Amino acid sequence: MSLSIRQLKVFEATARLERLTLAADEQALSQSAASQSLKELEQSLGYALFTRLGRELQITDRGEDLLPKVRQVISLLTEIEKPQTSKLEGTLRVAASVTIACYLLPQLTAKFISCHPDVKPEILIGNTGSVIEKLEKGQAQVGLIEGPASPAKLKVTPWLEDDLALFCHPTNPLAKSGFITLDELPKLNWILRESGSGTRNVFDQSVQKAGGKINSVLAMNRQEAIKQSVKADLGIGCLSRLSIREDVESGRLVELSSELDLSRRFSIVTPELSSPLVEAFIHSLLGDAT
Fold first, then answer.
1. pTM of the model
2. Domain with CATH 3.40.190.10 in the chain
3. Which contiguous run of DSSP H or E holds residue 121?
4. Mean pLDDT for the chain?
């Protein structure tokens, strides 16, 4: 069996970008040369790495099993090729769920970059499911998520404690009592994050665990849209306390208590093997958590 570094890089780029044309551009190859590299790699291995769906390439199960090993080889090669220096440099691709990206990550990234000015950050924002997907595809080097998750082939490290908060418009009848009972849950109009978000998962699990239920839900994938809808008195919202703090302090929203356990833990998600740059960033994040 004869494998080349170019073949492995074309395979990794195609798996990550999901288009051979994009992989060829990234590797500075013609499309025909990139296609030939993949073909030769598959012939050497004796099995297919991709199946074609229209113009897109979908990685096979055997390709999925091979991908982490190929990324490990490429990462080690990159380290060998770098000048031997203690200076951290390069691109740091971080995928973060919405609350973390809006209220924590900017300050944490700025602090890290101030210590390592040759590092270029790239921030990708999505819900917890999206963050995990980007890590699995190699489109991000580290993920920061809000909800519980146990993704295969990824390492999950507990990070920070957080609490969700229920809230309403100041003129809503619930604002006077400041409390929602389990019996009231199904009678209310709820304005919540979309399915797949960490916030929504924690809320749904808390309601189920408490033996309650909800009926009317308006789902949105933007925190600001949820807050503005609650400010228009369209229903009751549920978001991280971090995201509504200023509105509660100013009186634009009223936080409500309940029988639900809405505590959660933010987590750091990484591949099993991480680069020194990623390890340094994680060390910085965990240091801020203590």
1. 0.73
2. 91-154+273-289, 161-264
3. strand 119-125
4. 90
